[in-house]
Amino acid sequence: MIPWQLGMQGNAAMYSNAHVWMQTFDCCGAAAEALHRDFLRRLLGVRMSTANHMVLAELGRLPLQVHFWQQILRYHHRTIALDNVRLVKLAMVDGFALHQTAVKDSWQHYLGDFLHGHLGQQQLFHNFDVASVIERAKHQHAFEYFADVQHSSLMLYRTMQPEYKSAEYLSVVKCASNRRLISRFRTGCHGLRVDTGRWADGVHLDRTDRLCLVCKSLDCVEDEQHFVFDCPAYSHIRSQHLDLLQHCCTIADFMILCEPNACAGFLWECFACRKQILSV
Ligand SMILES: [Zn+2]
């Protein structure tokens, strides 16, 4: 079993009985989301500061909240199907009535807002289609991933991950260290100067000042494109991987068109060469 399949089982445990602890949604839900994302970061081997959208999209995962809602909506449906004299049903009806008059920070309040947002009208106590509501929530999350313009690191990443699904290399590359190398490279946690120039030595360099120290360029930023295709320091490595690189000219091509194990081998060689040059 591969690690993220284990993660799926962990997910089921985390959102079990969500309809019970949903009453403390703000604290429990947020903490569970953070735990979930940190777990995924450790699976991928990326930095703990890697953007949330990137971590979830790399594995094709959704926020736990979507699964919480699914549990809660099913609970809602099971409860409204009960006889009107059943205590649990009476308690839920009273809970919603109370929410409308006084309690604004309750799970009933969140449920009302959620249904209003996804169905366009209040659907409490109606037998709506849970699957279609959850499907809308999934599409909404994917839409937010593609529309996020707050994180500049997502601009390049989205060219490598144009669809919201688990990245192919995760199932193709069996070697864990090779998989982590690709994960770090795709998510920008690779240690090139375009990455380290943001925070190394406590100094934030403008992007245009994060120049390549390997070829000592006076005007080339050491970014992914320069590293894979342009830096003259790795020309001898590229010449040994012509089959890999001949059909691509962008990082997106490199990650989408090239065989992932071969990509990992090429990256290892370049990073080893880089380390050797910079250590002299
Ligand atoms: Zn260079």
Question: Explain this structure to me?
Answer:
- The protein is mostly helical and 280 residues long.
- It has 2 domains: 3-148, no CATH class; 175-278, no CATH class.
- The chain has helices spanning 3-14, 18-21, 25-44, 52-58, 64-80, 87-101, 107-119, 130-147, 153-160, 169-172, 176-186, 193-196, 224-230, 235-239, 242-245, 251-257, 260-279.
- Helix 11 packs across helix 17 (260-279).
The count of domains is 2
Give the fraction of residues assigned to helices: 55-70%
Bound molecules: zinc ion
Report the structural category.
mainly alpha
* Shape call: elongated
N/C terminus separation: 43 Å
Radius of gyration: 24 Å
Which range does the strand content fall in?
A: under 5%
List how many beta strands DSSP finds.
0
Described by strand count, sense and barrel closure, the largest sheet is: none
Secondary-structure element order, N to C: HHHHHHHHHHHHHHHHH
Quickly count the helices. Answer: 17
Q: TL;DR of this structure?
A:
The chain is an all-alpha fold. The chain is built from 17 helices and no strands. Residues 1-10 have low confidence and may be disordered.
Give short descriptive properties of this protein.
280 residues; 2 domains; elongated; binds zinc ion
Write the layout of secondary structure elements.
Layout: H1 3-14, H2 18-21, H3 25-44, H4 52-58, H5 64-80, H6 87-101, H7 107-119, H8 130-147, H9 153-160, H10 169-172, H11 176-186, H12 193-196, H13 224-230, H14 235-239, H15 242-245, H16 251-257, H17 260-279
Bound molecules: zinc ion.
